[in-house]
């Protein structure tokens, strides 16, 4: 078995590694490429990109090479092969891989290792996938940028001065840079979709009840004993980041389904018997969010182009005005605070009391223990707790109204088309100024609807442009079929040139 040789230049990704996971698995099964050669190329690419962008928290290279040798032996012996046999992938560090660090980017957890493997990761390993790295993330998954005091900042591969997004930013960068064809992240307010958009790949937050969060906070070994762990996890989801749309369905079929740990999970996933008939689709275009940044011209144009393209296939376009959408961020916040009883300080302090005065003094003395963004978010959250979160209760009524409106809207043939964020990847630190820009994503965590970031095959300010599709509960297959179509029309992922890293 032979494989293509990796490129020595980061400006042109190795051709083999640019293929989809589905294609790579087929080549392995046909004995046209070797798992050993494929994983070795993946590792070499990871090493190149790590030096440039710092997307990797933990290297798994030695174990990956051993797994690749076993995978190759199984191929040569004619053993039954899993759906992704021999295909490399990455996992968000906070998801948990038994025996490996699970710090979640926190200095307080520097010595913590996972005692078990996250359900979604184990299912992919059982299907033959080979983890090669654990991706860097925002501290305790509490910020939409990937930067922490333990592993450092992850840079966007398209422009080093721009954020990779978060909290699953490291894995998005590895997928975008052709280190791996797909990765596993988690999404509590856009933590898969935002980095997917900023790095020009597909990122799915599945329907509530479909994919277990088991292994990730709060459903790790210690956290799942907390009284509100199941309630909190209902608003989070593990989900795939993929360079090619066809991999979304393949990965989702493997990772979905109950596991007996995450009690929110009650469904399995199967792709539609036939691709969605887009001519029957009703496509709704909501108003812009009131409290976030203005939508950029590039994103507005991408939304228009995607809508017109779907309309050319017979989809019916509808402008959709729903006042409750303007308060998306506050609806999400109210659900987490008043129903799930979330206290961010419990997470940032890793279960121990968090003193903001002590944290501020340590930062001023150059001995910071927390990244600025998560610390600020936690402080604001604590102020709200101290004040009793005045006025938040009214947003639960707005959530209920929105749920009724969406129940009428989504009939199995309906989609929302809207931004993932108002613009392309901003400069590092932007979220400190405009934290409410996550509202376009966060609302659908509160409502439990499936939502997908779709790259549009174009750049603005050197960074990828994306749109977001949202479907009704359990209608993930409709989303994925629409994504495959849009990829064929607009090109999807674009290779990062890395030219701005030179000189």
UniProtKB/TrEMBL annotation:
<dbReference type="InterPro" id="IPR020556">
    <property type="entry name" value="Amidase_CS"/>
</dbReference>
<protein>
    <submittedName>
        <fullName>Fatty acid amide hydrolase 2</fullName>
    </submittedName>
</protein>
<dbReference type="InterPro" id="IPR036928">
    <property type="entry name" value="AS_sf"/>
</dbReference>
<keyword id="KW-0378">Hydrolase</keyword>
<dbReference type="GO" id="GO:0012505">
    <property type="term" value="C:endomembrane system"/>
</dbReference>
<dbReference type="InterPro" id="IPR052739">
    <property type="entry name" value="FAAH2"/>
</dbReference>
<feature type="domain" description="Amidase">
    <location>
        <begin position="37"/>
        <end position="480"/>
    </location>
</feature>
<dbReference type="GO" id="GO:0016787">
    <property type="term" value="F:hydrolase activity"/>
</dbReference>
<dbReference type="InterPro" id="IPR023631">
    <property type="entry name" value="Amidase_dom"/>
</dbReference>
<dbReference type="Pfam" id="PF01425">
    <property type="entry name" value="Amidase"/>
</dbReference>
